[in-house]
What we know:
Oligomer: single chain
Number of helices: 25
CATH class of the largest domain: Alpha Beta
CATH architecture of the largest domain: 3-Layer(aba) Sandwich
Distance between the termini: 83 Å
Structural class: alpha/beta
Amino acid sequence: MFKSLTNAIRFLSIFEVENANSGHLGMPLGMADCLTVLFKNFLIFDPENPQWPNRDRFILSGGHGSAALYAILYLIGYKNMSLDDLKRFRKLGSRATGHPEYDIESGIEMTTGLLGQGFANAVGMAIEERLLNARLGDECINHNTYVCVGDGDLMEGISHEASAIAGHLSLGRLIVLFDDNNITIDGKVGVSSSEDTLKRYEAYGWQVLLVDGHCEKSISQAITDAQKDKRPSIIACKTKIGFGSPRENTPEAHGGPLTTQELAATKDKLNWPYAPFEIPEYILKTWRVIGKRHHETCEKWYKEQFEKYGSVEFEFSQEIAKVFHSEKKKYFLSRPFEATRISSKNIVEQISQVSDFIVGGSADLGNSTGCFTAKSQPISKENFSGNYIHYGVREHAMGAIVNGISAGKKIKCFTGTFLSFADYMRPAIRMSALMNIPSIFVFSHDSVGVGEDGPTHQPVEHLATLRAIPNLNVFRPADAMETVECWECALESQGPSVVILTRQNVISIRFSGGRSNLCKKGAYTLYEDTSRRNLQVTLIASGSEVAIALEVKRMLNDMSIAADLISFPCWRLFDEQPEKFKEKILGKHLRVGIEASNGFGWDKYLGSNGLFFGINNFGKSCSCSENRKFFGLTSKNICNEILKRDL
């Protein structure tokens, strides 16, 4: 019977790929035995309650093997993964997309994306389980996280970083099934790698197990042993890529549909005489029984634990709202001359005191970014009741781990590093936007404000690349007041946010605002010229350059040139506003953009006749003020250039 169950996965996968004339069969054929053992004997889930909070998590890090995942989800009875979806694998409108996309109702826990991301996501999910367990107790949360990886996942640098963190925190409920087939697309693993992967994991502090990946008994014993160990476990499953097909144990098994002759040979070897997508009733019934085996446990959990679980989660409560109102009032009165990273740190310290479900962290830059405060309590392998994660210098993994924590939408998780490191985290930021999960990425030390550290650490193009990601709110506050409001937007958002902060001190530019959040619409008129009929210029700026724009406005006013000043903290929120609002904000006169970036994307707001003042090349190793002067990002130069126009 076991072989029939595994072959159902194999042949559904084969026909998915054949129908699409696209896809990957190497992993589905090779790992079908391991996946059957996991879902049949160990994984705790309930297709009738896909969002059961205490279900085990299963992550397919090698997302190219998605055909196998969809086959299993259909076989065990997820209503949102139908046979028709499998028949339309990789077709428009099918839930069976090319690589798995976050859809818990369909049984898909994560959009894993590039190799290694899913592995680090799983580490994040295992951390989330421990965080919730520490807050809610064993009876409420005590599930396992399983992740299926291949050689490619373990070669990617992100998995090295994530593995080290998992070992350091002794995440005993994390179990990795390693498809150890010794094959990559270019050939044998040995053409590019000579390391002893399993010894590497021993060095990380993991339990390492080695099994025959086609032996049910061996696989079962290994998972049982892994569940008992207090360390994270990696099970090296010695498998044959493309198992049962003429391509078995060859690189050609990785991708593409089988030929007619190869399909016939595979069906003959595996004794599968059935038509495409035909699953004998006795096999489907057995799989459906497997799908129902934890239904009563799930129902019992909802009856006994859900009230406890649902009553203590992150929500934008009145207490948090009061914090933001209080901080705004404080800044309105004190008008500090301080870096926005310091303002952000003050906010983080305050909100961490009113919610146990806000968790921060940083890549060895907690104090520098303002993510670590006097109220931060680091977690450790002995105690997960804290609210801060020390990631070490591991930005790649940090971003994906935050996504793993945030995907459950129980904990509001933020993390920080310097903006120049954002490219290390870009794949994770992109995945958060694709999934629309509420991860918060804090980046300090923006642009040439970093000063003498030089162009390697002066991120002049990063704003444009982050803003290019769909569905991502990128906030660049101008002062303490705006920092409060941008944080408020980020915490309220159901999607991901980036908050970009200064290293250098900035002046307070707001003299009004009250309870209303002016940043919520992405842009607002900071200073409106009183002589509206003679308005000639609209100055538009973000972040620290709003102060420069204010100087320009004063200089123009001294010359009897009327100018409005617009603060522009978030492009995406502004783009969502009605056209009339946008037209009113931007005005119909000369539009002047001022920002310490390369200016990519500003044309949309400035129009064909607008002016932009920014950083048109890499910065220089000198002070912030010298950089600004070198690139003409000064009030005097900007004013002179505006005067050259026929106003």
